[in-house]
What we know:
Elements: H1 2-21, E1 34-44, E2 48-51, E3 57-60, E4 63-73, E5 78-84, E6 87-96, E7 99-109, E8 112-118, E9 124-141, E10 148-151, E11 154-166, E12 171-180, E13 183-190, E14 196-203, E15 207-216
Antiparallel strand pairs: 1-4, 1-15, 2-14, 3-6, 4-5, 5-8, 6-7, 7-9, 8-9, 9-11, 10-13, 11-12, 12-15, 13-14
Amino acid sequence: MKQYILGLIFITLFPFSVLAQQDPSPKATDFSKWQVRLRGLVITPDESADIEAIGGDVAIETAVVPELDFTYFITKNWALELILATSNHDVKAVNTAAGTIELGDVWLLPPTLTVQYHFTGGVLKPYLGAGLNYTIFYGADEGPVADDVEYDNSVGIAFQAGVDFNLSDRWFLNLDIKKIFINTDATVNATTALGATVGADVDIDPLVLGFGVGYRF
């Protein structure tokens, strides 16, 4: 998994880093303390689960959602970014001893704070980031089988790579990719249908691709 993340970051940033060094425009490196972005996200879980008693795995649906984030620049190169978004995912237990079990859907609120290094560039300004994620699970709908489904909140790490494409001194486009590690203990109360309460250790670990527009001030 570590090799996968490092390879992904290298492939994403290498061409942008070369281009950024070829156009050292002074305007593109002006020091603005704050920037805000509005992005669309594609959240693709890389899910797996250890399900008690009945075995099997988990399948979690991809989601497309809007996202708002704020970045504070400590220096011209070092910054902190807070990422705010919420997403809804359908959940199934698959390949279990009881077959496929529909577990309804659940909302995830995963605020993520990353420390970023922004490379000095011109029109293109790539960056790398790493930080912490706290995922809150809420609004779980148990589906047609379970009487109740509960998810524990999660703390995990996040890795990030991206590039800003400057349209002017203030406005820019952004492409961003993140790998967020989310683990939760899920409890499924299915005594009516299965005669049991089943626990599961679930890794969600989504890959998050974002594209949007930003403003510096």
